[in-house]
Design goal:
81% of the residues lie in helices and 0% in strands. The protein is globular and about 60 Å long.
Length: 241
C-alpha cells in the first residue's frame, strides 16, 4: 500500500515538474517571437515608405504586406516598379525570391502536422523567421508553438510597421531626403548575409552580383536581378550534383 502511494506521489510530482518546464519553455518561445517581430519593424517601416515613394498608394502598399507577406519579394517588386521596370520583370523577380518559402514549406509541414483546413494559413506565414524557430524548437517538441508564435508576431508587427512607413513616406515625398532609397538594397544584404558562411557561397554571390551589374546597362530594370539570381540557382544545382 505504501509503495503504491509513493509511486502515485512520484508520478504526480514528475507531471507537475514537466508542466512547469513546458510553461517556462512556452514563455521563452513567446518572448523570442516578440523580439523577432520587433526586429523586423524597421524593415517594415522602410518598405512602406519605399513602396509609396515608388508610386503605390497607401492601400496598395498595405495589401502587399497583408497578402504577399515576404519582405525581400515585396522590396524587389516595388523597387523594380519604381525604377521603371515592367510588371513582368517585377513579378518574375518576386516569384524567384519567394520560391524559397515553398522549399521551407516542405520541411515545416512535417513538423507542424497541421490539419488540412489550417495548411493554407500555415503556407501564408511560412517565412524565414517562423521556419527557423520551428526547426530550432523541434528537438524539444515545441516546433508548432514556435512556428505559430513567431508567425503571429512578425505578421502583426510587419503590417503595423508597413502602415506607419506608408504614412511617413507619403509625407516625405522624396525618399533620398531620409536615405530610404537605400532600404531595398539593405534588406537584400541583410537577407543574404547569413547564407554566406561558406567560401563557395561567397564566390557564387560575388559572381552573380558581378553579372547582374554588367547587365544593368544592357537589360530593362529588374532583368539583371533575374539573370544573377538564375546564375546563382544553376550554380547551386550543379554543386549538389
Amino acid at each position: 500500500m505504501r509503495g503504491h502511494v509513493w509511486s502515485v506521489l512520484v508520478v504526480s510530482f514528475a507531471r507537475g515538474v514537466s508542466a512547469e518546464d513546458d510553461a517556462a519553455s512556452l514563455r521563452r518561445i513567446r518572448a523570442r517571437a516578440l523580439v523577432i517581430g520587433l526586429s523586423v519593424t524597421p524593415f517594415g517601416v522602410s518598405f512602406g515608405a519605399v513602396s509609396v515613394g515608388s508610386g503605390l498608394s497607401v492601400l496598395q502598399t498595405c495589401l502587399l504586406s497583408l497578402v504577399l507577406f515576404s519582405g525581400a519579394s515585396q522590396f524587389a517588386l516595388v523597387s523594380i516598379l519604381g525604377a521603371g521596370g515592367g510588371v513582368g520583370s517585377a513579378l518574375a523577380t518576386t516569384l524567384l525570391l519567394g520560391s524559397r518559402n515553398g522549399l521551407y514549406g516542405a520541411g515545416v509541414r512535417g513538423l507542424l502536422r497541421a490539419p488540412a483546413w489550417l495548411r493554407p494559413l500555415a503556407a501564408q506565414v511560412t517565412i524565414d523567421e517562423s521556419t527557423a524557430m520551428a526547426f530550432a524548437e523541434a528537438p524539444a517538441g515545441f516546433a508548432a508553438s514556435a512556428f505559430w508564435s513567431t508567425a503571429a508576431s512578425v505578421y502583426v508587427l510587419w503590417n503595423l510597421a508597413t502602415v506607419l512607413g506608408a504614412l511617413v513616406g507619403r509625407g516625405l515625398g522624396s525618399l533620398s531626403v531620409a536615405g530610404l532609397d537605400a532600404a531595398g538594397p539593405a534588406a537584400f544584404v541583410a537577407l543574404l548575409g547569413p547564407r554566406l558562411r561558406f567560401a563557395s557561397a561567397r564566390v557564387v554571390a560575388l559572381v552573380a552580383a558581378a553579372v547582374a551589374v554588367l547587365c544593368v546597362p544592357l537589360l530593362p530594370a529588374g532583368s539583371p536581378v533575374l539573370v544573377g539570381g538564375g546564375l546563382a540557382a544553376l550554380a547551386a544545382v550543379a554543386r549538389r550534383r
